Amino acid sequence: MTLFENTEQALVFAYNYTGQNCITARLSPEPLPTTGKGLGGLNGAAQAGMIRREVSSAGKLIESLITAKYAPMWLPCSCGHPCCSGKIENKEWSEAIPYIVFDVCRNVLRGADRASAIWCVRAFYSGVRPSATLVASYAGVHVSTITRQMKDIKAYLRGTRGKEGMDAVAYRTVDRILMDKGIVNEA
To answer: Which pTM value belongs to this model?
Structure first.
């Protein structure tokens, strides 16, 4: 019997499990409530780590695609400084972006300015859709360049009719690995 019914559940769990859960569990004299599957405290940390190790075995590009999709872009910040918004960028998420940008520049935007590709890829994975005008001003290029690049990047990462996108390739690869290791149920 597996703990997760599918790869989506496993990835959401692994990339959203916080280290705080593990620290709190070690310091608490009482056992903490779990998810119902025994995935609290150290058990949860171990399970998240096992899933993430298997994701990393697929290679840096696949791991980066999965991280950009499943890891939160922002983490809570409790520094208490007056200038703090209460959140900080997740370093793991932001470190995944350059690997994707390199792949996009090599396979889709041959010869394109890397700065504009970074802004487009960040916009694609952030879930926030800034205007092309705003992205163009940040990247220092014309709006039509950003519009064209964003269209090409979306097609490459999301896919088009008859052509699988890189996100789907990454998911399928990790899905097979997690099924083979018995972490998720066979589809």
So the answer is: 0.84
